[in-house]
């Protein structure tokens, strides 16, 4: 099939490349000339494991092209996929400017019947609106299909090839059949729905996963106070198939380009329909609060924060990506800077992106994980990258006068920590070696 994908962000680029890998001829179009230049020169504008090799192979086999020229891009295309951004407006609603603009442009250019598949996350009712917008521009026949995307950054290629389900919302059987045919090689169950239900499935799925995270984070906060261990609690809960083990890792709250945006958009969407989505409002509030757990523990461990040097391991909102959008690291570093701390920051791939948003005379951009630790009073682990998980804790303990580790992602186990003598503040369980630490502190001062 000949396919055009509009928008080369995470969703557009990864989907486009994967459709090419399935044997289709794919043209990826973006208005951003810089992104297209990077792609034309053989690079990729995002960090995503496995994507570069797929781009190389499909470009070489002449199945994958990049252009800024929409007219050239959609010529003879059977399916045009819209995957442009729907960023949040200040009130939380999704900004539909880009998608409407793309729809108008496509309508002005199509010459034959075309299936328009919308992958961008859009409020319920948007696909119908897009249809009207396009009808105002063209007399050529087309059908709109909603095909929401569920890929995760950091495992986007694998998720695209191994989806749990393919959601297709539409009104025209012919258009639905074309989209089914395109996705058949993926061997996943199809859920065929009305347009509005498909749109809602995407929001409801993200909101539900966000709820799971805020729920387990609150249970973790209670565990800290009552002396239970959240890791054991999560494991015990997750083995119940009705609950499921995924998304039960307590931490510092969710970030990224989807959960924060989509939860707020769904609250707005419900509000516009006169429904107060109380549960989801609490989910968002809990998520915001959760970041402060790291600060609370730092204050407990160090007392006064002013003048202290804090190392931060991890700036990306999750491992496997250079994306820092809505990363908890922003709130945490801003709070520490305001409190008069000196920061030593390190992330294996997201330093450049983070630095483009935050720069400060009190930030030292470390060259590696150890460089960040040097001369620090405490280390906070915010992103669970493998290099941090594989740290030799005995070596770590020797690098610091009083080794203090605030682990926002629960990556170390009790035995490792105890053996190394590190004072350790995990999420959702009691601190480890804290007594040893207190004892030695008092010995040192006596
Ligand atoms: C998410 C959805 O999973 C995906 O289906 C959708 O298409 C886009 O949004 P993504 O944002 O890439 O994907 O990452 P995900 O792995 O879902 O993690 C989101 C956030 O939740 C991260 O900040 C992560 O650290 C956090 N998280 C996840 C937890 O805190 N605990 C968990 O148990 C799982």
Automatic annotation (TrEMBL):
Similarity field: Belongs to the UDP-glucose/GDP-mannose dehydrogenase family.
Pfam families in the cross-refs: UDPG_MGDP_dh, UDPG_MGDP_dh_C, UDPG_MGDP_dh_N
Protein name according to UniProt: UDP-glucose 6-dehydrogenase
Enzyme Commission code(s) on record: 1.1.1.22
Domain of life: Bacteria
Catalytic activity: UDP-alpha-D-glucose + 2 NAD(+) + H2O = UDP-alpha-D-glucuronate + 2 NADH + 3 H(+)
Signal peptide positions (record): none
UniProt source species: Paenibacillus motobuensis
Keywords noted in UniProt: NAD, Oxidoreductase
UniProt pathway: Nucleotide-sugar biosynthesis; UDP-alpha-D-glucuronate biosynthesis; UDP-alpha-D-glucuronate from UDP-alpha-D-glucose: step 1/1
Domain annotation UDP-glucose/GDP-mannose dehydrogenase C-terminal: ranges: 311-414
Matching InterPro entries: 6-PGluconate_DH-like_C_sf (IPR008927), NAD(P)-bd_dom_sf (IPR036291), UDP-Glc/GDP-Man (IPR017476), UDP-Glc/GDP-Man_DH_C (IPR014027), UDP-Glc/GDP-Man_DH_C_sf (IPR036220), UDP-Glc/GDP-Man_DH_dimer (IPR014026), UDP-Glc/GDP-Man_DH_N (IPR001732), UDPglc_DH_bac (IPR028357)
């Amino acid at each position: 099939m000949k396919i055009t994908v509009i928008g080369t962000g995470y969703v557009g680029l990864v989907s486009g490349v994967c459709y090419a890998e399935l044997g289709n001829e794919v043209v990826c179009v973006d208005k951003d000339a810089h992104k297209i230049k990077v792609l034309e020169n053989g690079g990729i504008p995002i960090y995503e494991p496995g994507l570069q090799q797929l781009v190389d192979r499909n470009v070489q086999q002449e199945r994958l092209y990049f252009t800024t020229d929409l007219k050239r891009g959609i010529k003879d295309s059977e399916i045009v996929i819209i995957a442009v951004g729907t960023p949040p407006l200040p009130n939380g609603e999704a900004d539909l400017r880009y998608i409407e603009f793309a729809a108008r442009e496509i309508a002005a250019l199509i010459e034959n019947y075309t299936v328009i598949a919308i992958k961008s996350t859009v409020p319920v009712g948007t696909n119908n609106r897009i249809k009207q917008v396009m009808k105002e521009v063209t007399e050529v026949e087309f059908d709109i299909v909603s095909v929401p995307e569920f890929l995760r950054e950091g495992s986007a290629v694998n998720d695209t090839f191994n989806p749990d389900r393919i959601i297709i919302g539409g009104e025209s059987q012919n258009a639905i059949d074309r989209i089914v045919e395109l996705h058949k090689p993926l061997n996943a169950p199809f859920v065929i729905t009305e347009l509005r239900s498909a749109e809602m499935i995407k929001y409801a799925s993200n909101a539900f996963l966000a709820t799971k995270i805020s729920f387990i984070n609150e249970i973790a906060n209670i565990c800290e106070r009552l002396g239970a261990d959240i890791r054991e609690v999560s494991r015990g809960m997750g083995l119940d198939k009705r609950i499921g083990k995924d998304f039960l890792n307590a931490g510092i709250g969710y970030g990224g380009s989807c959960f924060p945006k989509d939860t707020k958009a769904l609250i707005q969407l419900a509000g516009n329909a006169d429904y107060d989505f109380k549960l989801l409002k609490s989910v968002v509030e809990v998520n915001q609060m959760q970041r402060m757990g790291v600060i609370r523990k730092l204050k407990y461990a160090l007392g006064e924060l002013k003048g202290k040097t804090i190392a931060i391991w991890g700036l990306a909102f999750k491992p496997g990506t250079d994306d820092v959008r809505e990363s908890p690291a922003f709130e945490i570093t801003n709070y520490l800077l305001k409190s008069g701390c000196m920061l030593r920051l390190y992330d294996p791939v997201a330093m450049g992106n983070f630095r483009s948003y935050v720069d400060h005379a009190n930030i030292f951009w470390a060259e590696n994980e150890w460089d960040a630790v040097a001369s620090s009073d405490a280390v906070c682990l915010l992103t669970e990258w493998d290099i941090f998980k594989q740290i030799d804790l005995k070596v770590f303990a020797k690098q610091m006068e009083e080794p203090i580790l605030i682990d926002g992602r629960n990556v170390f186990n009790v035995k490792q920590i105890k053996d190394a003598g590190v004072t350790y503040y995990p999420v959702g369980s009691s601190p480890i070696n804290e007594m040893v630490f207190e004892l030695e502190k008092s010995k040192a001062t006596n």
